[in-house]
Design goal:
Distance between the termini of chain A: 41 Å
Radius of gyration of chain A: 13 Å
Distance between the termini of chain B: 37 Å
Number of strands of chain A: 12
Oligomer: heterodimer
Shape of chain B: globular
Structural class of chain A: mainly beta
Radius of gyration of chain B: 13 Å
Largest interface: A-B, 26 and 30 residues
Order of helices and strands of chain A: EEEEEEEEEEEE
Strand content of chain A: over 45%
Number of helices of chain B: 0
Number of strands of chain B: 11
Number of helices of chain A: 0
Structural class of chain B: mainly beta
Chain lengths: 112, 115
């Protein structure tokens, strides 16, 4: 069965500090993994995706994530937080590519 | 290229009523998925339609149903509304839904409030 766990429903960082949002998954087969961002009153926007091509995936807005099979993790990082990064972030897993399972989300607050 | 559109954006209904939400996918996209988003629960998969057929279904009661038309537009219906159905309903489309390489594009959602 597929599932995603996002540790920390709320994360606060200072502007310019490292952003680390955690995601652990379970899957019986090599999965596809995704990070989405949601701004208030908007739908979800894809930040990056892992499709087995490379374990370190670079996305938009300076975000990246590393797939670690041994830890079943796909944590999202950004070296320096910006005020505009404040949003809700969702990790998702898919084994088939047409049914996605999302985590419960992490709300990121950036403190000036 | 126009994005995924959902109508209406906001709805207020009372318990026991039914509601129909609409989703127009990106032109050329044949797969439409529906999600329910609630605080603390994240996004929960409702169902996915591809070429007018329901291909995948989540773990929701039969009060939740959907359909897809030949132009790929999709509707979802919730009958006998309950207070717990209050949520943001998101629609996502992808080209053909085959394989994880097909990115899902999300609409802005319909905010349903059940009183």
């Amino acid at each position: 069965a597929q599932s995603v766990t996002q540790l920390g429903s709320h994360v606060s960082v200072s502007e310019g500090a490292l952003v680390l949002l955690r995601c652990n998954y379970s899957s019986s087969v090599p999965p596809y993994l995704f990070w989405y961002v949601q701004y208030p009153n908007q739908g979800l926007q894809l930040l990056l995706k892992y499709t087995s091509a490379a374990t370190l995936v670079k996305g938009i807005n300076g975000f990246e994530a590393e797939f670690k099979k041994s830890e079943t993790s796909f944590h999202l990082t950004k070296p320096s937080a910006h005020m505009s990064d404040a949003a809700e972030y969702f990790c998702a897993v898919s084994e088939t590519g047409n049914q996605f399972y999302f985590g419960t989300g992490t709300s990121l607050t950036v403190i000036p | 290229k126009a994005g995924v559109t959902q109508t209406p954006r906001y709805l207020i209904k009372t318990r026991g009523q039914q509601v129909t939400l609409s989703c127009s996918p990106i032109s050329g996209h044949r797969s439409v998925s529906w999600y329910q988003q609630t605080p603390g629960q994240g996004l929960q998969f409702l169902f996915e339609y591809f070429s007018e057929t329901q291909r995948n279904k989540g773990n929701f009661p039969g009060r939740f149903s959907g359909r897809q038309f030949s132009n790929s537009r999709s509707e979802m219906n919730v009958s006998t509304l309950e207070l717990g159905d209050s949520a943001l309903y998101l629609c996502a489309s992808s080209k053909n839904g085959q394989g994880g390489l097909n990115e899902q594009f999300f609409g802005p959602g319909t905010r349903l409030t059940v009183l």
